[in-house]
Amino acid sequence: MVYYVINEEQFLMQVFKKEFIMDKAPALFDIHTHEFDIAVSFPGEHRAYVRAVVDALIKEDKIEAANIFYDEFYQAFLAIPSSDTLLQDIYRNRSKLIVAFLCEDYQKKEWCGLEARAIRDLIKERQHNSIMLIRMDDGKVAGFFGIDGWIDARKHQPAEIANYINQRLTGKLIFPVSAKEPTLPTNNLPDRNPHFTGREEILEEIHNNFQTGQTVSLRQTVAGLGGVGKTQTAIEYAYRYAGDYNDIWWVNAENGPQEAYRDFAKSKALLPALEEAGWPAVLEAVKNWFDQNEPFLFIYDNAEDFDLLTDCLPRFKGHVLITTRQDHSPLGKSVDITVFRQEEATAFISERLGCDEGKDAAELAKRLGYLPLALEQAVAYITATHESCGDYLQLLEKYGNKLFDERASTVYGYAETVNTTWRISFDKIKSKSAKQLLNLCSYMAADKIPLSLLIIGQDKLPKPLRRALVDKLKLNNTVLELTLYSLVQKKEGLLSLHRLVQEVVRGRLAGDVQWISCCLDMAYAVFKYEWGNKQSMDNFIQNAPHILEIARHTEEILSDNEEAQKKAALLYNVIGYGYFYGSQYQEALKWYQKVLAIYENVLGTEHPYIAITYNNIAAVYNNQGRYDEALEWHRNALTIREKVLDKEHPDIATTYNNIASVYNNQGKHDKALEWYQKALTILEKVLNTEHPNTASCYCSIANVYSKQGKYAKALEWHRKALATREKVLGMEHPDTASSYSYIAMNYLNHGGYAKALEWFRKSLAIIEKVLGTEHPYTTATYNNIAFVYSDQNDYLTALDWFVKSYGIRLRRLGEAHPDTIDTKNSMEAAYNKSGLDGPFEEWLEEKKD
Residue 393, class by beta-carbon neighbours within 10 Å (0-12 exposed, 13-18 middle, 19+ buried)? Predict the structure, then answer.
């Protein structure tokens, strides 16, 4: 029986018009089983052109409408749940020819992505005659147009394209999608992975390098960490380009090529008495075959000892592809293969699960570090247990790397799990220093671990590694042993490793607390933040992610060790301090609150460390303008300090000073002066007049007088602060620069513009040098200089300085931040007075460019 596919609306119209004899009317069909001649794939932007092609096919009786899958014909049938699965089946299994209208917008469309996946699957299976590519523009589409043949729609009318489609349908090359795999050359290849995803650039790079080799025998080495998919990529390459070769042979090269060469010699009958032949005779026979035959591809998988291969490879002809975990290979050009890109990983999960789990799939891919083996193991487990990506994420959170030992389902294309795969590499590490370095790195952040941190903290490290850290050659050899198997990468003195490698290493160390204790002692000894010391501040930025990881692991692993918990709290405190002075107040608050939670658990509620933390939290609130909260926390700190400390202790003076600062910010100047004077009395008595804390109090008192309009008195106190700072802190400290700025502002407030500029520029020279051009203090100084020029009616110069400040604040703070808005408003006011033509917004857009 022949079934015709029709649109229900068209069918009813035809019946009512009596254009069909009822007993010959076409039967309705089941869209889940119907076979199509053509399925068209296109983005909506080109619907008019595609519809014209479809109309031409129907109009000229080239093909019946029933046998064309064009979405507008079947809207009623597609309005169902899981229509993505239906579409995949139609394009993948039930269409003789897929006609893809490709353009730059194609890959941006969600539905086109589903169709493209089916098309790429057919390409991988070498079902090339089931696909016809029509190019609509010059845009690139991932996986297409590299070396593919296509028709340029811009050069043809729709009727011509319809004619080309008809030629494909009626030509000798057409065959159903279900046809057998094209005949492969002589080979011993492993089975092809039907779920292979991504790696298009890697495959193309390998292929292009083979084509452009200066010698006939070209060796490609694919290197990388175990589990990133080197073997699967080599298998895919062999199948995808099988038509380029007469022979393809797979060699398991881990222990040398002897067994594979003997099998090859047998398949080609190279030796009459093969069973009795020794290895030299087999090798010579295979090498002679190499010299007399081409084209061929030999793949040497998992090469470890290159000395075993050097004399065994083809000398003059053929292509050689080597996979290895080793970072460096002497046998050919290396093509590095790493983890999936984010889009490759999520596509892999969706393809394997047959559905799109959205954010959970993306989060799972990220959590597994985009490692193909880990992703394969995850989807195998999810499929076998009928769970979801979200369920698996919860299991990871609960069980960690223990889950990597589970074999709930076959892990396609991989003989080992994540844990067992890397165990091989771990076991190859021989030196104690390399093992110790890997153990320590597993408790830090995965990326950019500075060797300098370990070198500075070497006194707290075990002896073998300590000896290596002080000897450049030994250190290089230690790191080389880890990079050799791609467990670690080194760049510019920084080490990086995959986060799952870290988890597996930590799993192997479970119950052995010496390594986290070692990391903690090292971090506690060397990690600091020294305000005003540029090197210290730069080191803080570099080291902070690793210190945070060490502290986090300390909390988890050494939870019953009070001393360890206190050290972790002190590390968090330094983190908070550094973020506070970097004006990242929300981050500072986050870590100060973490400090408080640990201290309250370990020390109780009335310890001096608790008071310090209250004080730090209050300082954040004060700088955020949350004055009532700041006062509450400062008073809580004062209650503890007055109870447990001497009445003239400097910490009590600090609290007085901080309370005064809040009152000053609230505009309660007399109240502020009262508390500043209480602080100063203690500071001058206990610390003397030449201490940085005393100088800060001088400066604060000066600011109160300045806000009261008492500029002469303010200048007097600012100069007292400056004299101390220049003497004690030096001429290039940010606090010294701060004094310069306060003096400048004092001059600005009563019209001393020349003096204000002089002092602002002195401040700026220090700040730009020590803090950099994008620090909040720097942008504030740019702003202040702009105000000096604006107050003198030099609006064009003022605009130049406002633009510098605005650009930085826009990048660092965003358009909606109050500081960015304030700068923009001040800039607009200056622009309106500058005499410049045109709308302000247009001018500002030009300046952004």
Answer: middle
> Amino acid identity, residue 125?
E
Question: In which band, very low, low, confident or very high, does the pLDDT at 447 lie, cut at 50, 70 and 90?
Answer: confident
Partners of residue 450 on adjacent β-strands: 494
Query: Of 105, 35, 25, 92, nearest to 66 (Cα)?
Result: 35
Q: What is the pLDDT of residue 172?
A: 40
Express each pLDDT in 451-475 by its tens digit. Answer: 999 999 999 999 999 999 989 899 9
- Segment 51-55 shows an average pLDDT of 87
Q: What is the pLDDT at residue 634?
A: 94
- How many whole angstroms separate alpha carbon 776 and alpha carbon 108? 39
Instruction: Please report which helix (H) or strand (E) contains residue 489, including its range.
Output: strand 489-491
Average pLDDT (692-711) is 91
Give the number of other CB atoms < 10 A from CB of residue 1. Answer: 3
Give the Cα separation of 449 and 469 in Å (integer): 14
| Three-state secondary-structure class, residue 252 | strand
Place of tokens 């400290």: 733
Give the single-character DSSP code of 244: G
From the list 488, 550, 545, the residue with the least C-alpha distance to 522 is: 550
> DSSP 3-state assignment of 335?
strand
Residue 847: which residues within 8 A CB-CB, separation 6 or more? 803, 807
Round to whole Å and give the CA distance between 304 and 325. Answer: 7
User: Which among 604, 618, 525, 627 has a CA at the least distance from the CA of 576?
Assistant: 618
pLDDT tens sequence across 90-144: 887 888 898 989 887 776 776 776 677 777 777 666 677 788 889 888 777 765 6
> How many Å is the maximal CA-CA distance in the chain?
113
Task: State how far the alpha carbon of 648 is from the alpha carbons of 606, 641, 644, 645, in Å.
Answer: 19, 10, 12, 8
288 neighbors 314 (Cβ within 8 angstroms): no
How far apart CA 336 and CA 631 sit, in angstroms, is: 57
Give every strand in the sheet of 36-41, ordered side by side.
Answer: 68-69, 36-41, 95-102, 131-135, 151-152
CB of 797 closer than 8 Å to CB of 789? yes
- pLDDT exceeds cutoff 60 at 14: no
Contact partners, residue 642, CB within 8 Å, separation at least 6: 652
pLDDT in tens, 610-654: 999 999 999 999 988 899 999 999 999 999 999 988 888 999 999
The radius of gyration of the chain from alpha carbons, rounded to an integer in Å, stands at 36
* Of the listed ranges 51-55, 237-241, 379-383, 745-749, the one predicted with least confidence: 379-383
| 756 neighbors 786 (Cβ within 8 angstroms) | no
Per-residue pLDDT, 697: 93
What order do you get walking across the sheet with 186-187 strand by strand? Answer: 186-187, 247-252, 296-301, 319-324, 218-223, 333-336
pLDDT surpassing 50 at residue 174: no
Q: How confident is the model at residue 498 (pLDDT cuts 50, 70, 90)?
A: confident
DSSP code per residue over 88-110: HHHHHHSEEEEEEEE-TTGGGSH
